[in-house]
Specification:
The structure is a single chain. The chain has two domains: 184 residues, 3-Layer(aba) Sandwich (Rossmann fold); 90 residues, no CATH class. It is 48% helix and 14% strand. The chain is built from twelve helices and seven strands. Helix 4 links the parallel strand 4 and strand 5. Helix 1 packs across helix 5. Bound molecules: zinc ion. The site of zinc ion has 5 residues, from loops.
């Protein structure tokens, strides 16, 4: 199957779908990342031009590690607008790849670029099968399934449609974060007023946020305030009941890391077959 992850920035796909991407690739599926923005706004010292170049290098390294095609569009950060021109560019792009499933932002989100991506995907979704819309690119015969990244926004709240344990690929996911040096060790710590330790090993330990072991409880995870291991661990803690339902009592209780996905009402039907192929 072909799976297209569409994020606004060069970390949205990585941190919300990095684990499932590694699993899907191992199962022989084709995965593609699109970042609709170029990273221009993501630094406090480098110029936008320098940041765009450096982020592109980091994304190329992520693509190599995951074995995927990774496209970055030339829209500047904080400037993405759900206009007709961008919608049509997206329609053509999706049609050319022709994915079975798309994973993206919800339309409600704190970040204007995330909202724009959510709206653009939603606006493009029906047009994908309309032949007279962008007639230069052959229309698809079916609308792909459209899924959402997990988020914690409450208006309306995120509704879980699929969950996967990612314990087997958490090391890859952490490595992906580690590759994004300009983001995770420079820009984001600047915005959160965090001190990053010196030394590659020390900063990688810091990146995790918490040393999660078999003994670590869901309460400890939920109380932690930062870190990339913590992020995936919080998903497992948040949806513990659903993990137990899916994987059984014994295994479900032990899962430490997970990725969760919602379902867009505007995409194709999430059939049992697709669910099994993608989320088992
Ligand atoms: Zn983002």
């Amino acid at each position: 199957m072909k799976i297209l992850m569409i994020g606004a920035h060069q970390d949205d796909n990585e941190f919300r779908c990095g684990g499932i991407t590694a699993q899907l690739k191992a199962k022989g599926h084709d995965v593609r990342f699109l970042s609709m923005c170029n990273g221009s706004g993501g630094h406090h010292i480098m110029t936008p031009e320098e940041t765009i170049k450096r982020r592109a290098g980091e994304s190329a390294e992520v693509a190599k590690m995951l074995g995927i095609v990774y496209d970055v569009w030339d829209n500047n950060d904080c400037s993405l607008v759900a206009d007709l021109e961008t919608r049509r560019r997206l329609i053509r792009y999706i049609r050319e790849y022709s994915p079975d499933i798309i994973i993206t932002h919800r339309e409600n989100d704190y970040h204007a670029d995330h909202r724009a991506v959510g709206v653009l995907v939603q606006d493009a979704s029906y047009m994908l099968i309309v032949p007279h819309e962008c007639p230069d690119t052959p229309a698809m015969t079916d609308t792909p399934v459209i899924m959402y990244y997990e988020d914690s926004f409450n208006n309306p709240p995120f509704e879980l449609a699929a969950i996967v344990a990612v314990d087997d690929v958490i090391d890859i996911k952490l490595k992906i974060a580690d590759i994004n040096v300009s983001q995770v060790y420079e820009w984001l710590p600047y915005t959160y007023h965090q001190e990053v330790p010196e030394g590659k090993e020390e900063r990688f330990e810091w990146l995790k946020g918490l040393n999660i072991t078999e003994e670590t409880t869901d309460e400890e995870v939920m109380a932690a305030t930062r870190g990339y291991a913590v992020r995936s661990a919080k998903t497992a803690a948040r949806f513990r009941k659903e993990l137990i339902e899916k994987y059984g009592e014994e295994k479900g209780k032990k899962i430490k890391y997970a990725e969760a996905f919602g379902l867009s009402p505007y995409g194709g039907k999430l059939t049992e077959e697709i669910k099994k192929e993608i989320f088992e």
